[in-house]
Model the fold of this input.
Amino acid sequence: MRRRAAAESKDGKRRRKRGPGRPRSEQARQGILRSTLKLLGANGFSDLTIEDVAADARVGKATVYRWWPNKAALIADAFASDTTRQLHFPDTGSLRSDMSQQMRQVIKIFTSRRGRIVAAILAGGQSDKELIKAFRDRFLWPRRREAYATLRRGISRGELPKNVDMDLLLDSLYGPIYMRFLIRHADLTPAFVNRLCRLVLAGAWLHRK
Amino acid sequence: MRRRAAAESKDGKRRRKRGPGRPRSEQARQGILRSTLKLLGANGFSDLTIEDVAADARVGKATVYRWWPNKAALIADAFASDTTRQLHFPDTGSLRSDMSQQMRQVIKIFTSRRGRIVAAILAGGQSDKELIKAFRDRFLWPRRREAYATLRRGISRGELPKNVDMDLLLDSLYGPIYMRFLIRHADLTPAFVNRLCRLVLAGAWLHRK
Amino acid sequence: MRRRAAAESKDGKRRRKRGPGRPRSEQARQGILRSTLKLLGANGFSDLTIEDVAADARVGKATVYRWWPNKAALIADAFASDTTRQLHFPDTGSLRSDMSQQMRQVIKIFTSRRGRIVAAILAGGQSDKELIKAFRDRFLWPRRREAYATLRRGISRGELPKNVDMDLLLDSLYGPIYMRFLIRHADLTPAFVNRLCRLVLAGAWLHRK
Amino acid sequence: MRRRAAAESKDGKRRRKRGPGRPRSEQARQGILRSTLKLLGANGFSDLTIEDVAADARVGKATVYRWWPNKAALIADAFASDTTRQLHFPDTGSLRSDMSQQMRQVIKIFTSRRGRIVAAILAGGQSDKELIKAFRDRFLWPRRREAYATLRRGISRGELPKNVDMDLLLDSLYGPIYMRFLIRHADLTPAFVNRLCRLVLAGAWLHRK
DNA sequence: ACTTAACCGAGACGGTACGTCGTGTCTTGCC
DNA sequence: GGCAAGACACGACGTACCGTCTCGGTTAAGT
Done:
């Protein structure tokens, strides 16, 4: 991703110098990402061809390759540029309520059209370190940072022991969702999420000792 | 899979009539499966080509296609033919011990060379229903059946409530392992497994009400 | 050109062993050559694309590349497989008559549709040694061998001195044709050929001393 | 070629008004032509790309396209700007001496590095009428005009018949050179030129009748 | 000195063809 | 009739140039 630092600065004065040459077409960039999501949702990862993306976005193939090294990076970017920034954690005053509410949002996305995209990224990531890293950096960590804050609120309220292993706890909450999402041996229902949340948070509380 | 029912009779009575023509080469079949596993472990799912498999196994491409309809079926078969499946549950008298011991075996395999094959199947399964089904049928369910028995022993010992949701419990135990295995955001260590097991089983016990 | 030695021998007995594998499709080969000539005559060298040839011949692109390393070799082969083997020398009893008759045939071809193909080969040959060599080996030398015979008949009839430099003579006869053909500064007419022939043969006779 | 009529007036009268704006960079123009010749001599016609020329001349691609409509025009211009054209005819008092001397100069150039450029033009000219026309207009005719004068001197000296067909004669002299130059079936040596010249001029003299 | 406008370099753009690779099918002769 | 070998039609790959198009910056002539 060699996107050049844009000409933006906080003070607005000593703005970053832009190199020579025709600047990148923002329109093309967005069109490509849009077409990627569209075709990915329609046909899945393996049926997605760069050729189709370029054609759908009315763009030269080279323009795609100029900015994304491979299909995986393209998908990761498209995914990141997407509505990803939803999925925030509420603050209801109850840890279980906060968590289960957000988790229900997660499974809503996983079971929707967008779920195919997540599955495609996780699948592609198994043979592409960059892709799975992109998933972690752009999807997992941002959300987890919010989750930490939510958990800390729970600790301060006494809903969790102070020394709780937050990563263990969060993996225990989300792991089963990912597992059912990927292996598809059982449904991802809100009821499942509720019971899962209750089970794990109960364990975490008991776990304090 | 149009493999013909083999002449599987020891008693010599209901021996399946075998038509004319050269019989299927068992040597070729095994060579293909062996090469599949070898290349899959070496290069991952997307880099595995039927062409390479055939070449590595010193076999004609048509011989591969004659017996397996696609890459996914081939991988599924290769995986099933693998020794991976000996992941049995012990009976130590303690539920947590039984579970954590087996789970440590699982992560041992997941973090070994063979893990790549599992990852390849789960990855390929995201765009191939048959493949993920094969994983469930040949890997997940057999093990889960044993797990049910283990859990039932725990129930009878009073380590778990009688009405425990076994699938929820097992997903809570294994989900985090799959999540870490696939997303690789944290290590799969025996210590993690132990704490995970303790957390979830504590929650399950408390969950009884 | 890795065409394998065909299974042909004179005695018909110890015929050449043909290797394993599906034999080359003669139909595809001829279709490709035919399409090449067709498109070459229609659009010229630089507008000829392998892609179009393959499409026109209803053949995969790879089949073209399997047997011809580049456009030049393809054209050379197509040209050689063509009616090239016309252009024979008559034996009228008069050297000038023999030569001018054949030369008139040459300019007839050069000024016809097929001329574009010859021009394409000579043009391509300027940056491709193999191509110009192919032209020499498959077009120039076979004809020149016949020309030598014709000249020798002329010598035996006393129409030429015994020690005539045959290559100098033939280049003097055909060079002007090639020059006019390629530079197009003057027309290639039968009258031109006749006068050229008369001029050069007169010079050759006088040249004896 | 939309080059604007330059301010080509020495007398200072009909001086073309030059509007405002930066004038064309003569340095860029010459650099482009120089790079064209350099790359053409190095790699031949088909390997010459405008992109390479621009890069080699440290010039923007658009600057090339602004002044030359296509590769052929560029090559033609580069060739014309070259010093190749000083191939004048001497006046030794002997026709054969005048001709053979100039012809030896020609083959010297044809067999030198610059020959590749001539070959490239003749090659490119086979698929581009403008290019071959440029060759005729800028190379062939200027020289031929001098040749006519040389021949006329020969006629006045009685070395040639009065009614000699000068174009036939000149094509007979130069055609073999072009033929050997382009087909490369025999060497272009001074000895060859001498014998060729003797043969053809002998024929022309005899041809008078 | 200031405006105007065509030039310049750089380089991204929509395209097209390239030559390669893998797919799944087929056609041989041998076993 | 299975087998190895390998050619086949097909289609996507990622690259290279094409000729065009913005950009910011430069360079005069005309105010």
In short: Residues 19-25, 28, 54, 58-63, 66 of chain C lie near DNA strand F (CB under 10 Å from a C1'). The first helix of chain C runs from residue 26 to 43. Confidence is low (pLDDT under 50) at residues 1-16 of chain C.
